[in-house]
Predict the structure.
Amino acid sequence: MAKTVTWEVALEIARRDLLDLWRSKMLLFFFILFPLLLMGMFGYIYPPTPQSNPNTGSIGTAFPNLPVSLVQMDDGPAASSVAAQFIQVSEQQTFFTVSQSASYEAARNLLVQGHLKGIVIIPEGFSDSLEAGQPATVQVTVDETNPTIASVVQSEISAVFNIIGSNISDQNIHSMDPGGAVNPAFIIQPISVTQIPLISGVTSSFEFLAPGFMALTVITGSLQGVATAISREKEQGTMDGLLASPIPHLSIILGKVTAQTVRGLIQGFLILGLSIILFGVRIYGSPIIMLIVMVLGTASFVGVGIIMTAVAPDQETAQMMTMLLQFPMMFVSGVLFPIDQMPTWLQLVGRAMPLYYAADALRKVIILNANLTTIMPDVLVLVVYTFVTMTIAIPLFDRAMRR
Amino acid sequence: MTMQESVTVSSSPNQAIETQGLTKRFNNFTAVDGVDLSVQRGEIYGFLGPNGAGKTTAIRMLCTLLLPTSGSAKVDGFDVVQQANEVRKRIGLVSEKLIMYPRLTALENLMFFGRLYGIERNALWKKSEELLEMVKLTPFKDKLVGGFSSGMRQRVNVIRAILHDPDILFLDEPTTALDPQSTRFVRDLVKNLRQGGHTIVLTTHIMEEADELSDRVCIIDHGRIMAIDTPQAFKDKYNTESLLEVFLELTGRELRDSANERISMRAPMGRM
């Protein structure tokens, strides 16, 4: 009996909170814009996975036609041949647009000014080495001020010289073994690797990020939403009206949490919808399990929002406190950056956040079509989190409100 | 909590409110200091005092919004700490800040708060319409309260507090910042409520209001009761025609400027 009353009142409170959002058109506008903007931004920031094309023999690149310069300091025929091949292969693979520079200094100046991403130097004596049957070396400088681009340029230059090298080896083998009894590939590259994709079809790296963003938006949104909603009512004076009426305080909490969960889910599904439309993200798992995970994700952290409100003297402080929690959580929970690249202590911090488990579970459900059994460890952590934070939050709220 | 509530029944039915040594301390500031009050059923009890005297703190304790540091208080025979929920069923509150959601209409506000008291929907709707008619706001019942003038807001706010027919009504400065017409209207409303048998605890800084409405007046300062009497007896005793003179005699003429460590978020009424 008492349970139904608690829920009945909670639903009235939730309904009112949502009506409030609906009635403030400006807030509603930003409420919808925010996840769309966030998703659109991240969707374009993260580069698509390079697509190889067997027909043209291209390897594929996420950053096509980066400007690099070639400095040829050796006039020998071998050097000229390698330079010509470098230009041809680079452009065929759409890796680079290649310009030529007279000296390393001139090229370096251009790089410093931001016109080049890399410099390839064919040093003096290059032709002599090759003609003498010795391995020769090219030198490379990359724009190290941008680590991502630097590593792409580095690896693509290596790839180009692999192709050129293979061609040279091919000729060498032919000249040593004119009969052609041996497949040159056996000598150049005896073992080759091909990849079986985790999910079939064309994928973009964003497909793996979308679920994390969903979890991030839902959890941080509800964390901040609850803190704001409660402290605003406290400041506005309407909380007195709720507290002076004969309803269980649990109803107030449940009502606020329900409203915020609904808001979070709306934003979460907006994000999902946009990623499907704009970025071709596909859903492989069950929407019901997705819903369960998102509701649990919200519930697990909303208690923290209530605890903060109970402690904070006003709305602004409550907001600052939730921000302080939100930002580190965004970065260390494995949504934006892989957690494995972090030092152990930071990984532990990340693993202490419910977002880590919600994002993990959602990723597995959406992309890998995981069932409840597979994500049970994540779900259990979220349930425990919910239980613990709520156990602390409810009596604290009670006391804080009547301080 | 519920167990204890159902056991004890009102011990002294003639006393609407009874406190003993009621005290509230915030850190080392004593806002209410050992107050013994006794409010009779059906009277309008004027609760007067300069700023910072402890009026609002005392009322918040009686409304179960604040826990007393020590002492005890019974409202309608129920203990404000042990039987808070029984107290809540029997009181209505008009506090300094409006208890109204600006983005709900007048009727929606009444329906929302009424539901908190478990009033059945149809009965609640009828009652809300009736009360809106009483305060002459029927034409505005479907307009958002945020767009109302202070006077209109306060009229809705007052009927919100009496939707569930509370035995005891707490009015904390109900006419502050109202225009003369609304002030008159609210005062007449308070008188009518008294006729209807409600007990009313009223705080105000307007001495003529206290004089006009109160059956008895309690003057409080520095958290302590200075004197309790009927307005007429006060005026006779101090040989003056105005309650303001009595008030100043009792509480002194110096200005009460003080700054508290605890920031109070009290906004002027009407700001939403």
User: Anything to note?
Assistant: The beta strands of chain A are 66-72, 96-101, 118-122, 139-142. Residues 2-46+205-401 of chain A form one domain. Chain A has two domains: 2-46+205-401, 66-188. The two ends of chain A are 30 Å apart (CA to CA).
